[in-house]
Amino acid sequence: FPVENIRNFSIVAHVDHGKSTLADRLLELTGTIDKTKNNKQVLDKLQVERERGITVKAQTASLFYNCEGKQYLLNLIDTPGHVDFSYEVSRSLSACQGVLLVVDANEGIQAQTVANFFLAFEAQLSVIPVINKIDLKNADPERVENQIEKVFDIPSDECIKISAKLGTNVESVLQAIIERIPPGVIANVALFDGVVSKGDKIVSAHTQKTYEVNEVGVLNPNEQPTHKLYAGQVGYLIAGMKDVTEAQIGDTLCLHKQPVEPLPGFKSAKPMVFAGMYPLDQSEYNNLKSAIEKLTLNDSSVTVHRDSSLALGAGWRLGFLGLLHMEVFNQRLEQEYNASVILTTPTVPYKAVLSSSKLIKEHREKEITIINPAQFPDKSKVTEYLEPVVLGTIITPDEYTGKIMMLCEARRAVQKNMIFIDQNRVMLKYLFPLNEIVVDFYDSLKSLSSGYASFDYEDAGYQTAELVKMDILLNGNTVEELVTVVHKDKAHSIGKAICERLKDSLPRQLFEIAIQAAIGSKIIARETVKAYRKNVLAKCYGGDITRKMKLLKRQAEGKKKLRKIGNVEVPKDAFIKVLKTQ
Ligand code: GTP
């Protein structure tokens, strides 16, 4: 295929707006898949994807389309729909020149529509807005056209109105791909050293394939060919890469016969949510280990460190891109590898700026990242603590705005913007501390808006925060696995909640147990478990010694599963109830 007959595009959409259905129609129309067979949503493969109706790993399909006597190769590059996977999204988008932005004609622009548009916009791609589901009774495509014009500044007459389900007008989507998306595999490059010009032979460090350079140029912002590209310049390069997967983001290209060390990738996935993972039963450790290894093989964005807990045994501390990413990983372990795991409450990577002058003298990093509360440095050694923040976008019917604003404020969020995107829909932007949304923010938002509000977020760096380390004590002894880092203002309510959960799951013992939450030596919450004597021998009236022995033995076995903290025995189960998500 000549480069001018190749189009590389992606479909992006908010969840359920019809991305997969449109992809199916395009595949059918171009004869890539057979209409009669029941191969709905061929691009979605994993079970977790089918169940949750989301895409996690990107796939590619090639479509052949004849138009005005010319044959075109349309490469449909699948992208995950959710921001947790925005690393995958930007990697997929880097291989495209355009996107179809699918918007539901009834629901209109939602938070992920906005996030996806800006990813495409930043990658300088052509955006073709497609308003889907016009067959629905409540469809209001004109309203959605106006939203698109208002929020994205795309003239409303550029919107294509379709029903992916019925196939209405889908042909004009193919037409628009040919007309509005620029052709070919065009790799955006930054030149670090030397010169590259037309005719040079280059090698990809990633694939080891050799190419001849057909064209180089600068982005102005459209491609403008030049004779050469020099070190320090940023531009584009066309080199007969037939398949877009050959142009990988972060790949290093060098001149043939002048090999160099590959440069480090431009953008590496950065985990933002950490959680402990343990086998439910330690005998499952090795199985779980190999399952985690296999899963991380094709999801390199998960970071894995070995960890161990006195209560839960040997396990790992895993880092994920976001909450959904974590849930999906967990679900895949369970479904594809039959693993039963304990996943602890997620935490975020805090930072501390150390004040010790000795460290500065030694030119050591002054700033440290804390992913495990046990490593939290004492306030006396620290000039400031920092917490990760995200910029959240919420789109909601106006009637819920008041309640949502209250929810956001309770989560320490700061409002950045609020606009009406049409007569009764509001778009709110808030800066959120990430740790305030990692546990149940999304659920709260959904329930107080009867499911109508949508939410999405992007990384927004770090901000100063008053963080404290909170200990949980049983009769005065610290429970190591329950140490947490919390914001000063939230310590009381979180401490109280943990104490209450522990109280509910600790069995009574021969003496009273004080459960306390403490910051340093200051107690901020307390619950008490009353004394109780569990006399296993009560049922044996004298005589039968073997029966007594049996009962005593059984009680002793039960104790093996307990962990002793001071004089208090804590069953593993109690830890699981307190540590587990939800
Ligand atoms: P994610 O993979 O979760 O991002 O979803 P998606 O965007 O791929 O949506 P999908 O194609 O799975 O469609 C979601 C739902 O909308 C399905 O129940 C489809 O049958 C339905 N749907 C898609 N297109 C249309 C349409 O044109 N009209 C109607 N009425 N329903 C549609």
Short account of what is shown:
By secondary structure, the protein is an alpha+beta fold. The protein has a 6-stranded mixed β-sheet, with helices on both faces.
How would you explain this protein's 3D organization?
- The protein is an alpha+beta fold.
- The chain has 15 helices and 32 strands.
- Strand 2 and strand 3 form a beta hairpin.
- Helix 13 packs antiparallel against helix 15.
- The two termini are 53 Å apart.
- About 1% of the residues have low confidence.
- The site of guanosine-5'-triphosphate has 19 residues, from helix 1.
Mean pLDDT: 81
Oligomer designation: single chain
Sheet with the most strands?
A: 6 strands, mixed
Taking all Cα atoms into account, the compactness measure Rg is 29 Å
Number of strands: 32
Strand order of the largest sheet: 2-3-1-4-5-6
Distance between the termini: 53 Å
| Estimated structural class | alpha+beta
Determine the fraction of residues in helical runs and give it as a percent range: 25-40%
Total of helices: 15
The shape is: globular
Bound molecules: guanosine-5'-triphosphate
pLDDT < 50 stretches: 41-45
